[in-house]
Amino acid sequence: MTDESPYGEQAWDERYRGSQHAWSGNPNAVLVAEISDLPPGTALDAGAGEGGDACWLAARGWRVTGVDISSVALERAAAQAKERGLEVSWVHLDLSRDEAPGTYDLVSSHFVHLPLDRRPTLFAHLAAAVAPGGTLLVVGHDPSDAESGVARPHLEEAAWTPDEVVGALGPGWQVEVAEARPRRARHQDGPEVTVHDAVVRARRHH
Predict the structure, then answer these.
(1) What angle do CA 95, 100, 103 make, to 5 degrees?
(2) Which helix (H) or strand (E) holds 57?
(3) Considering just the CA atoms, what is the radius of gyration of the chain in Å?
(4) Could you list the mean pLDDT of each consecutive 10-residue stretch along the chain, which spans 206 residues?
(5) pTM greater than 0.85 (yes/no)
(6) Are 129 and 106 in contact (CB under 8 A)?
(7) Could you tell me if 65 and 162 are in contact, meaning their C-beta atoms sit under 8 angstroms apart?
(8) What distances in angstroms separate CA 174 from CA 30, 103, 162, 204, one per listed residue?
(9) Cα 174–Cα 124–Cα 121 angle in degrees, nearest 5
(10) Residue 113: which of 155, 54, 142 has the closest Cα?
(11) CA 178, CA 166: separation in Å to the nearest integer?
């Protein structure tokens, strides 16, 4: 992505350089909840960041390709995988512009930040990367988070409804989950509040 937004490649590289660890290193809770019942196969972690999800999948027998717009994030992710003795393929790629390298039994994307006009292309590329019989899992911040009390800068680039993702799929899919899922969260020293994740899980027909 070019740098027309706070979530362009340069901005993400600077954000990662500005902190030793941008994220916890743990897998996203929705990934654990939704994917634990699937047999391992090939997986694409779209927006892999520092590799928490990709490493969690690889440790459970998935053959994982982690894609991210930030080369700094990918360097950290590769270091984490190496430290844990895990084999993951890392690819520097902007999926809002370019298609994924191949198709996969699982395509997982969590909290990718994009301007509104780039989302349809991203969702189309994610869907196209799912092999027949495979699963797509897309998670974002629900727009209702604007009223949650948790500060989310640039929420307009980070939030979408489940219907936006489902609407981009087209025919040939079974939508298994499409909901705004509540969870408890706290921002810095503020009170704990309820926020909602936009969760879509769908399976491509054979």
Answers:
(1) 145
(2) helix 52-59
(3) 16
(4) 60 72 74 96 96 97 96 94 96 95 97 87 97 97 77 71 94 97 78 90 96
(5) yes
(6) no
(7) no
(8) 19, 18, 14, 6
(9) 150
(10) 155
(11) 8
